[in-house]
Amino acid sequence: MVIRKNKNGEMILKKSSSKGLAFAFCGLIMTIIAVSDALRGVFLPQFRETFSLTESQGSRIIMVSYIGNLLFLSIGGYISDRVPKKRFIGGVIALWSAALAVYVFTENYYILMFAMMFSMGGSTMLSTSINLVTSVLFLSPAMMVSIFNFLQGAGITAAQNIGGRFAGDIANWHYVNLILLVLAGVCLVLLWRLDIPEEEKSADKDEKPQNGLLMIFGSPAGYLLIPICGCYFVAEHGMMNWLTSYGSEYLGYTVEQSAVYLSLFFGGITIGRLVFAPVIDKLGIFRCLMIWSAVGAAFYVAAIVLGKEALFLIGISGLGFSIIYPMLVMLIGKYYDPSVSGSVTGGVLSVATFFDIGFNAFFGKAVESFGYGISIMVLPVTALLCSVLIFVLKFTVKRSAEIR
After folding, report:
1. Cα separations in angstroms, 49 against 43, 167, 327
2. Which of 252, 306, 368, 385 could form a disulfide with 231 if both were Cys (CB 3.0 to 4.6 A apart)?
């Protein structure tokens, strides 16, 4: 395979067949990890029924999965800068697949929680890795990241819409994970045939490993990037994991109807990532982040605060949320040396995962104490904070010349 560089010095696959293979691999892996993540929230009511769980016990399943995020992003981000990207991604797929295999064969609550650490942590690490390697695989990385995240959104929406119709039987949890396990095997075959160029290290870069937190806070942006990502995580993941339960247990909808509303949110994310992909390169990452986050937060807040009659607005908020995460992942690395972009990005996202862990650690207990009506208000607050902090970052922290 021949590698060439564009005018920015980025390494690009020259052969169209190689680019086609790269697109097939990235697109398929982003789709199936999205399906896996979305099914956790869809089947949460069934988990509670099967294992006779309280709200607090149900929330522990979600909390443990984000502990997996923390472990994979913190450790994986460090490792990813020190081993070939292809070998690293293959290892993460193997760990993620092992968790899927556990889902196929067990109905034990404690084993389920343990496996959640590997499936959620592995899927988040894979998603982050795909966003990062896109810059060395394709000529228009921002557009391709948006397309791959569109496919991720499509996987989430399909899982919520279709999965909601079959979430009444725990046996279907086993069947769908078996299908995902087979597709994970296909991804490993595609990865084996794919060449992933390595980014060149800075010539003057000190090879001595640096402390991750010191690197993150070496830029003033780190103090804002962490809460921005943390608030975004709670707003999006809280919706993914709890809207089905909130709708079916508080608003009076069935599980199937609640899953449809959930699919509206991620359907908006999916459509937005496809439609807005060409716009991002023209307007710039930061400008898009400010506009889309403000629109997303406004409709998100309205949908939750106004209640049952306005819940359909959650679909419009999804359009605003559509580009936020992939653009944040690209934005983080722009504040740091390219040779440590994986470590820093993984570090920021892993620290931000504490927001997810804290939210899910207390949300179940909050529901038991105050009910869904009050407890759910945490979500619109975090959506609004995410948007406000993006504006603060824009106007208070000096940016790289690469970022508009």
Report:
1. 10, 11, 38
2. 385
Contact 232, 224 (CB under 8 A): no
One pLDDT digit (tens) per residue for the chain, 404 residues = 434 444 444 444 444 457 788 889 999 999 999 898 888 877 888 888 888 888 778 878 888 888 887 888 778 767 877 888 889 999 999 999 999 999 998 888 889 888 998 998 898 889 888 877 877 777 666 678 778 878 887 887 788 777 777 777 888 899 999 999 999 999 999 999 888 876 655 444 444 445 566 778 777 888 999 999 999 999 998 998 888 889 888 888 887 888 888 888 988 888 888 888 778 778 888 889 999 999 999 999 999 999 888 889 999 999 999 889 888 887 887 777 766 766 788 788 888 888 988 898 888 889 888 999 999 999 999 999 999 999 999 888 765 544 44
The residue whose two tokens read 């292809």 is: 86
Label each residue of 317-331 as H, E or C: HHHHHCCHHHHHHHH
Could you tell me which residues are beta bridge partners of residue 13? Answer: 3
- Spatial separation of the C-alpha atoms in residues 216 and 231, rounded to whole Å: 18
3-state secondary structure at position 203 = coil
Q: Can you say whether the dihedral through the CA atoms of 240, 33, 403, 215 is positive or negative?
A: positive
Q: Which of 306, 25, 162, 5 is closest to 13 using CA atoms?
A: 5
Residue 277: which of 130, 140, 134, 146 has the closest Cα?
146
Hey, how many other C-beta atoms are within 10 angstroms of the C-beta on 370? 12
Q: For residues 341 and 215, is the Cβ–Cβ distance under 8 A?
A: no
Consecutive H or E run containing 152:
helix 141-166
Residue 320 to residue 295: CA distance in whole angstroms: 5
DSSP H helices in 81-140: 85-105, 109-137
- Closest residue by Cα to residue 112 from 156, 171, 64: 64
